[in-house]
Automatic annotation (TrEMBL):
GO MF assignments: DNA binding
InterPro entries, alphabetized: ApaG_domain (IPR007474), ApaG_sf (IPR036767), Hemimethylated_DNA-bd_dom (IPR011722), Hemimethylated_DNA-bd_sf (IPR036623)
ApaG domain mapped to chain residues: 204-329
Taxonomic superkingdom: Eukaryota
Species annotation: Coptotermes formosanus
Name used for this protein in its record: ApaG domain-containing protein
Length: 336
């Protein structure tokens, strides 16, 4: 089945959106369809190999798998025996949630699709190498994708993806399936940056048909003469599972540090935007950062959402831990 022709009914709309984005990258003056490959059946069991080309099920971009991560997913929507005992607690901070192992993938995003993605494409950041530096360095076009969001496809092109790291990390092997395999550069980069790239915990919760997914990452510690500052980044995805359009209006965070402090943060929107989640564009993803003067802490909060019929509600952000890791003093981060 050709990639631009069709899919099953549940995927037709997503596929159509992808094809339009691809065509708009090629020309802003007119629209034309161009075949980029042929879809394969998504894997129900097993993992995708390094070099697997795919379309993102939600955001529609073209990408390639670099390597997998095994993460613990804490889904607060899944009932458990103690859930009913904690329903009175609005933020569900004390609710016991059992983690389930799930596969995610480190991927590269095709740079031609980046302008049309409702997600930050420079979300994976690293601290500067100097101990006193607070500078953040981003690797453009790097993302984390859940197994169920991978729509695999094949192509006969030797250069199917445009990304500055594609040739550095992958090599073409015409007799392999997929025909792209890892170079030693990729293995070395993965090993060196493993502590800062590692995806270990994922947290999910749904309120009024709006699902919030949070993935925290430890970035490292920066020390001065007086204090030690620990840094984390966190990736948040909002997805509208209902039929009515909703818009994010405000954010409200509670940040607890092991040092004993509790900080409250309120503000309009997120990362300078008040994203609209509609049936045609149901998802939005962004990343931000937090620092503590303690090696661990917790975060939780709410997003104030406004529905198209005027109804407003607080969408819960699932509580998540901020945990530090031991560091190699001689290591550098983010360098290719």
């Amino acid at each position: 089945m050709e990639l631009m022709v069709g899919l099953t009914k549940c995927l037709k709309k997503n596929l159509f959106d992808v094809s339009i984005r691809i065509c708009m990258v090629q020309t802003m003056h007119y629209t034309r369809l161009a075949e980029v490959g042929k879809l394969e059946t998504p894997k129900i069991q097993g993992k995708y190999d390094t070099g697997q080309l795919f379309l993102h099920r939600v955001f529609g971009y073209r990408g390639v798998v670099l390597f997998p991560w095994l993460a613990r997913v804490y889904d607060r929507d899944i009932p458990n025996k103690r859930a009913s005992q904690d329903d009175a607690n609005f933020n569900h901070v004390g609710k016991e949630v059992k983690g389930r192992t799930h596969t995610f993938y480190q991927v590269l995003i095709d740079s031609r699709d980046c302008p049309y993605i409702r997600a930050q494409t420079e979300a994976v950041t690293f601290l500067g190498n100097q101990d006193s530096s607070r500078s953040l360095y981003a690797i453009p076009g790097l993302d984390y994708v859940a197994h169920e969001d991978i729509l695999p496809y094949t192509t006969t092109e030797k250069q199917p993806l445009q990304h500055e790291l594609f040739d550095k990390f992958l090599m073409y092997y015409p007799d392999k399936d997929p025909p792209f395999g890892p170079q030693e550069t990729l293995r070395a980069w993965q090993k060196k940056n493993h502590p800062w790239l590692e995806l270990s915990d994922v947290h999910k919760e749904t309120t009024e048909n709006v699902r919030v997914t949070v993935i925290p990452f430890y970035m490292g510690c920066r020390e001065s003469q007086a204090t030690s500052v620990f840094w984390w980044r966190y990736c948040i995805r909002l997805e509208n599972l209902g039929d009515l359009t909703v818009q994010l209006r405000e954010r409200h965070w509670r940040i607890f540090s092991l040092s004993g402090t509790l900080e409250t943060v309120r503000g309009r929107g997120v990362v300078g935007q008040e994203p609209v989640l509609s049936s045609s564009l149901p998802a939005f993803q962004y990343s931000s950062h937090v620092s503590l003067q303690a090696p661990s802490g917790h975060m939780w909060g709410t997003f104030r959402m406004e529905r198209e019929d005027g109804y407003t509600f607080d969408c819960r952000i699932p509580p998540f831990s901020l945990e530090s890791k031991s560091e190699d003093p001689g290591s550098t981060t983010g360098v290719i």
